Amino acid sequence: VAMWVKWNGGNAWQRIFDFGRDTDHYLFLTPANGNNGRLRFAIKNGGGEQQVDADAALATGEWKHVAVTIAPGVTTIYVDGQPSAVSNSVTISPADVQPVLNYIGRSQFTADPNLQATVDDIRIYNYALSPDDVVTVMNGEEPVVEPDEPEEPEEPVFGDVNGDRLVDQLDIAETLCYILGMPVDDPGFSTEAADLNGDETVDIVDLTLLIELFK
């Protein structure tokens, strides 16, 4: 989650954002918490609340870019593109919370004050931004998401007629059934793979070659 915030100050426990279901299931960012007065990210999923505190409250009266990234094993609060807090102790993910009440400037707790601020350029991503991504977003641009490299297909196993990557008795039996005109129920059976000598026909010669491979 990333956005620009110009906070006017005021009481603790205001919410920059608060996404959740109720007062036991949420994740929020407050410009100043009521314990030590610092910028805090917190997340709760029915058990204990897990917290990450920055080194100070959010500055007032000026535009600040804030972001929270949640990746497996590390949660980071950024202010103006720089990490302000990093924690390795957050084990709850937003998917665990399953938020349906998603507020900007409002808390799941009715007693908490609304945010006294102006906000702009709110962005929510379904993956954790990298440090470079956070700077890119702060500059008003979109991160470049590199496509996953396609996996190299496995080389076929010569003589494996049913696609289980083994050359065994099942290949021999299924090839024999095919030659005799009996049904081969295995959906992985391939006549192309069973044509071992490449003459575009599956016959006794291919079966003989297959038996030799199995030996």
Give me some keywords for this one.
single chain; 215 residues; alpha+beta; 5-stranded antiparallel β-sheet; 18% helix; 28% strand
Protein topology:
Elements: E1 2-7, E2 17-22, E3 25-30, E4 40-45, E5 50-53, E6 63-71, E7 74-79, E8 82-87, H1 94-97, E9 101-104, E10 117-123, H2 131-138, H3 169-179, H4 191-194, H5 204-214
Characterization of the model:
The protein has 215 residues and is α+β, with helices and mostly antiparallel strands. 18% of the residues lie in helices and 28% in strands. It is built from 5 helices and 10 strands, in the order ββββββββαββαααα. Strands 8-7-6-1-10 form a 5-stranded antiparallel β-sheet, covered by helices on one side. A 5-stranded antiparallel β-sheet has the order 5-4-3-2-9. Helix 3 packs antiparallel against helix 5. The radius of gyration is 30 Å and the shape is elongated.
Uncertain ranges: none
H/E series, N to C?
EEEEEEEEHEEHHHH
**How many strands, which pairing sense, and closed or not: the largest β-sheet?**
5 strands, antiparallel
**Strand percentage, roughly?**
25-35%
- Which descriptor suits the 3D outline? elongated
Alpha-carbon distance between the two ends: 61 Å
- The helix content, as a percent range, equals 10-25%
Mean pLDDT: 94
State Rg. Answer: 30 Å
What's the β-strand tally?
A: 10
Give the count of helical stretches: 5
Structural class: alpha+beta
Strand arrangement in the largest pleated sheet: 8-7-6-1-10
Task: Give a short overview.
The protein has helices spanning 94-97, 131-138, 169-179, 191-194, 204-214; strands spanning 2-7, 17-22, 25-30, 40-45, 50-53, 63-71, 74-79, 82-87, 101-104, 117-123. With 215 residues, the protein is of the alpha+beta class. The strands form two sheets. A five-stranded antiparallel β-sheet has the order 8-7-6-1-10, with helices on one face. A five-stranded antiparallel β-sheet has the order 5-4-3-2-9.
